[in-house]
Design brief:
The chain has nine helices and eight strands. It is an alpha/beta fold. It has an eight-stranded mixed sheet with strand order 1-4-3-2-5-6-8-7. Strand 3, helix 5 and strand 4 form a beta-alpha-beta unit.
Length: 230
């Protein structure tokens, strides 16, 4: 079977993730079944009108790889006037976030479980996002795996096109080598400027995770990198 029209238009790049599905709890499965019709976004929907998707015009944040969704849920709860679109390919994480959406009564979260590259290229319109955030992405620390890192020059160029003027790209990592790499890649894009002299202080809007706090207690560093579109 040959490639589909979509596959021809959007050729696959090397994936930055490995699909390792853990076991879902009954609560997570039920949350997906109950809330996906109202909160879920599928790639087949095509290009998105974010104002229509959320039913309002508001400051809109896209998060790539939200993990178990706890920090994203906390941000959405603390900022009900903002819209949050989260992307996560692992179903247990999607289910975990939707459990929080139900528990906290959140109305300002929409969720995609497709590849972020596909979502950006096929669904997010240019100049439509106020902030893009990627917290603790897989560092793929072995040199032979660096090609799998999400933060690459070409991907950053796509991210920039999706941002409004003065829109922000915010990446956080607990791997210093990856932080240095991310800083260098973002610095290469002439449409971006660093909001700090090098690394930024942790913004108030980014909650610390249990994983992050445990790392800090063990003496691990965390680096926030925040760039703004010119």
């Amino acid at each position: 079977m040959g490639p589909t029209e979509i596959e021809q238009k959007y050729p696959r790049s090397i994936r930055s993730f490995v699909k390792r599905e853990g076991k879902m709890t009954t609560g997570q499965s039920n949350a997906i079944e109950q809330l996906w019709p109202s909160c879920g976004v599928d790639l087949k929907q095509g290009a998105l009108e974010l104002n229509v998707l959320f039913g309002r015009e508001a400051f809109t944040i896209l998060e790539i790889g939200f993990g178990n969704g706890m920090s994203l849920a906390a941000m959405a709860e603390q900022n009900p006037e903002q819209n949050f679109l989260g992307i996560e390919v692992h179903n247990p994480g999607v289910g975990s976030l939707l459990v929080q959406v139900k528990k906290r009564g959140l109305q300002n979260i929409r969720v995609s479980r497709d590849d972020a590259v596909d979502v950006l290229e096929q669904q997010i319109q240019d100049g439509s996002l106020d902030r893009m955030q990627i917290f603790f992405p897989d560092p793929w620390h072995k040199k032979k795996h660096h090609k799998r890192r999400l933060i690459q020059t070409d991907f950053v160029a796509v991210m920039v096109t999706k941002l409004k003027v003065n829109g922000v790209i915010h990446v956080a990592t607990d791997w210093q080598n990856y932080a240095e790499y991310i800083l260098s890649v973002l610095s290469l894009n002439r449409d971006l400027r660093n909001t700090a002299s090098e690394y930024a202080d942790q913004p108030d809007y980014r909650p610390s995770t249990k994983y992050e706090e445990r790392g800090r207690r063990l003496g691990h560093g965390v680096w926030d990198i925040v760039f703004e579109k010119n």
